[in-house]
Specification:
Keywords: Cell membrane, Glycoprotein, Hydrolase, Lipid degradation, Lipid metabolism, Membrane, Serine esterase, Signal-anchor, Transmembrane, Transmembrane helix. It is an enzyme of class 3 (hydrolase). This is Monoacylglycerol lipase ABHD2. Helix 2 crosses helix 14 and helix 8 packs parallel to helix 11. The chain folds into 3 domains: 30 residues; 276 residues, Alpha/Beta hydrolase fold, catalytic domain (Rossmann fold), CATH 3.40.50.1820; 81 residues, no CATH class. The protein is α/β, with parallel strands linked by helices and 428 residues long.
Length: 428
């Protein structure tokens, strides 16, 4: 057998530290590469892409809403990752979350259900001197106590807006169902009841309709269902919705951008919420849910399976395809005539890019529609900040109020006969 000479052993031993240093450097370089890729650090910041028709209103809105034409700058270290924006919103909510004080109202429905919403009075006079109420529809399974809702409500109150926030049927942990039915993807009954109650309680108020995620679908569907629903409505803002559940369901089963994982998590949340009300949903002569449906729910690993087992049956749909077709706002949005702002983010891991052709097409066909697409922001994230810590208020909070302020000024100018001189250029 051959053996290393003493000098060779010493030379090889001397090379070991250098080899280990090389391995460590390669490992560090690999980790840094993965971090840069995962955090999307090389992605440039940019102003939102805004699609609209060239009208006097759209020119005025762009002049009056500088946030729609300025760079949106997320936190440097993590804010360019749509996943982290989404996860931090979901787990952390917001930082330094305020606790607005409101009054909870209970509205009996014709089918025995009890809708609830929280009413928050304005904390100051609105800039136009008008009485304006934001009627807000939260995201899936959400309610007025969620942190992102509390942050937005507090900011809106301080800008002179009264706020009414729907609590999705079955979403509040301390409020029991009074009928064997929960909220669904596109049921507008509870939202309509809240809007009508606000109109009756405040006969001189004007309304601003705001919907987040699933709430955006309900808000837009509500407005498009009837011209009467648009009476006294100044405008509508929809944030991070997918517009068509039928088109979204296929993309939500794909692993691209981890959508299948998000689907699994959301399905788990819905299962827990439904099962927390199992006694009311099952033990009733009028219940549409049976033991076999419950078995299907236990086995469900995706939202479409949850919807097929339980959710579609609350309103008697024969198939999940019919449920998605008839409950999606894409069937109704062409009937909306009030100013409509549709906000989405390019890196929203829940919304496939193909779905964004819907709002873009609407903005090209309808003069009242403006579609703003940010480069970053995730799903209902839109955090802002310098390096690490985000600011309490997000870009989303501020741009909704800025757009609404501009609409209020425009409406006041129309009533008073004022004449604005907006800039002549526009950005696509």
């Amino acid at each position: 057998m051959s053996s290393l000479a003493g000098g060779d052993v010493q030379a090889f031993g001397a090379e070991l530290p250098a080899m280990f240093d090389g391995v460590k450097l390669a490992a560090i370089a690999t980790v840094l590469y993965v971090i840069v890729r995962c955090l999307n650090l090389k992605s440039p910041t940019a102003a939102p892409q805004v699609a609209f028709q060239d009208t006097a209103l759209s020119r005025f809105l762009l002049k009056s809403c500088p946030m729609l034409s300025k760079e949106y700058i997320p936190p440097l270290l993590w804010g360019k990752s749509g996943h982290l924006q989404t996860v931090l919103y979901g787990k952390m909510g917001r930082v330094q979350t305020p606790t607005p004080r409101g009054i909870r109202k209970f509205l009996p429905m014709q089918d025995g259900a009890t809708a609830t919403f929280d009413l928050f009075e304005a904390l100051g006079e609105h800039g136009t001197g008008d009485d304006v109420t934001m009627v807000i529809c939260p995201g899936i399974g959400n309610h007025s106590e969620k942190r992102y809702i509390r942050t937005f409500v507090d900011y809106s109150q301080r800008q002179g807006y009264r706020c009414a926030v729907l609590n999705h049927l079955g979403a509040l942990p301390d409020v029991e169902l009074t009928s064997p039915r929960m909220f669904t993807y596109g049921c507008t009954w509870e939202f309509a009841a809240m809007v009508n109650d606000v109109k009756q309680a405040f006969p001189h108020t004007r309304l601003v309709v705001v919907g987040f995620s699933l709430g955006g679908n309900i808000a837009c569907k509500f407005l498009g269902e009837s011209r009467r629903n648009q009476e006294r409505v100044l405008c509508c803002i929809s944030v991070c919705q997918g517009y068509s559940a039928l088109r979204a369901q296929e993309t939500f089963l794909q692993w691209d951008q981890c959508r299948r994982f998000y689907n699994f998590v959301l399905a788990g949340n819905m299962k827990r919420l439904i099962l927390s009300h199992r006694s009311t949903l099952l033990n009733s002569n009028s219940s549409s849910i049976g033991a076999a449906d419950l078995s299907g729910l236990y086995a469900a690993t995706s939202l479409v399976q949850v919807d097929d087992s339980v959710m579609r049956k609350f309103h008697g749909y024969g198939s999940v395809k019919e449920y998605y077709e008839k409950e999606s706002c894409v069937r109704y949005m062409h009937r909306i005539t009030v100013p409509l702002l549709l906000l989405n983010s390019s890196d929203d891991p829940l919304i496939h890019p193909s779905l964004l052709s819907i709002p873009r097409s609407l903005s090209e066909k309808m003069p009242n529609v403006m579609f703003a697409l940010t480069q970053h922001g995730g799903h209902l994230g839109f955090f802002e900040g310098a390096v690490l810590l985000p600011q309490p208020l997000t870009w989303m909070d501020k741009v909704i109020v800025e757009y609404t302020d501009a609409i209020c000024l425009w409406e006041k100018s129309q009533r008073d006969g004022s004449c604005f001189q907006p800039s002549t250029g526009h950005t696509h």
